Amino acid sequence: MNYKTMKSNNSFVLKFAIAFTLVLILMLCNVVVNNTEVEASSRSGQIIMERDSNRVLYQDNANEKMYMASTTKIVTCLVVIENCNMSDIITVSNDTVGVEGSSIYLEVGEKLSVKDLLYGLMLRSGNDCAETLAVHCSGSIEKFAELMNITAKRIGAVNSNFTNPHGLHDDNHYTTAYDLALISCYAMKNDTFREIVSTKSIDIPFTTRNYNRHLVNKNKMLKEFEGSTGIKTGYTKKAGRCLVSSCVRDGMELICVVLNCPPMFERSKELLTNTFSSYKLYNVLDSDNIVGFIFNTKNNKKIAIYIKDDVFLPLTQHEIKNIKIEYDYPNFIDYSVKKDQEIGSVKIYCENNLIFQQKIYTIIGVE
Fold it and tell me: Looking at 44, 73, 103, 245, which residue is catalytic?
């Protein structure tokens, strides 16, 4: 073999080695990226929140943005209740039947009330019900999603984004355990919402046939866990198993959210049991009491101030001994005020941590 041949062969080997090394590096990078994605998707978001105070009693990855599957329908149901008449009759169109995923198998031409469709939405997680209600409420899926986002932001769920009414996967459709708990606390104060999600089973019309639909709630917590009051299950491959549940014991209602949690029922029961064992509801402030006076220099009169609602807080036995209440309002004013005008706030601390805050209002005519 002459020198030129050897040089050519060496050049070929060198090029092959470089190419092989680059391919190997790309393969390794891809493995790292895929492992990172698997790790990220395996994280579970969990939270326990007390319904009336919105106090967080337990959390783990609660502010992590995650997919939420059909727990989306909590927002869908709430938006429909707040913007539609429950007795309105909807004629099912061809555009909203045959939606993929869970369904109550609506047929074109069926006539059902808004409330009947809400039962189908929340008990059987009907994606066909979700789209039918959305189009009835807002004219289109896109317009309804805008209303979902407006509603969520109004409640305080600022780290969520909704693109559809059912929760089928969309990369831009997400929430956090905290946001979903906040929305659920708000929703469970609505009597119609509460009635629907606490229903274990119901018959609704199947107007194109000679028999009714029998709907059984997918939320097993209602049958298996004492005090359960709702609210919604969910599952997609990307979101994993998701559950928002609510439970009342000794006058305290807790909202539990677990996202991407394979043993969602078991974990929810464990979290709720532990939290009920640690916390009790205490009446910290009464709304009947005058909390102070402000001197009005304009007319040389005292104005009494008060809080509008009783304050009940979930506290441990240790916390109730370390509660500190501070009232923040001016001692003097030189302007006229109306009855029930906001004038300050009351703040409740536990070991220097602010755990609750409420507005203070004026009472006109009390000297």
Answer: 73
